[in-house]
Please model this.
Amino acid sequence: MKDRNLARGLFLMAIALAFGLQSLRYTIGDFSHAGPGLFPALVSSLLFVIGVVTVIRSRLVDKVRLDLNPKNIAIILASLCGFALISEHLNMIAGIVFMVFCSTMAGTSYSWVRNVKIAAGLVAMALLLQKLLGLNLPLY
Model:
């Protein structure tokens, strides 16, 4: 496959189908009494529509070459695995900081100031989710 836009659309559709089909295992309910499967079904439906639009658009615009960079894929996977391990054994704030600083090494430019801002924003979001929604996040 040599078209990046086509690959992007097909990938979005595959992810949407994977989550959408799993959401059907739960009760959907209706909008007045939503079941646990309603939200993932709606989100995956919207993602599938975006994937279809992307595939259609890929046929109408010039093809963009698909380049896979194994080094960048490995960096992103390592940052996600590191986040999971650090969050489990230390705390989630340290995991977030590691993930941000590690994953940005896959980019074309590296700015520690930008990384600090991104990490602070993600930690603030995690704190808000923990305090306002009562999610059980191991932040400390």
About this structure: Helices lie at 4-23, 38-60, 70-89, 92-103, 112-133. The chain has five helices and no strands. The radius of gyration is 19 Å.
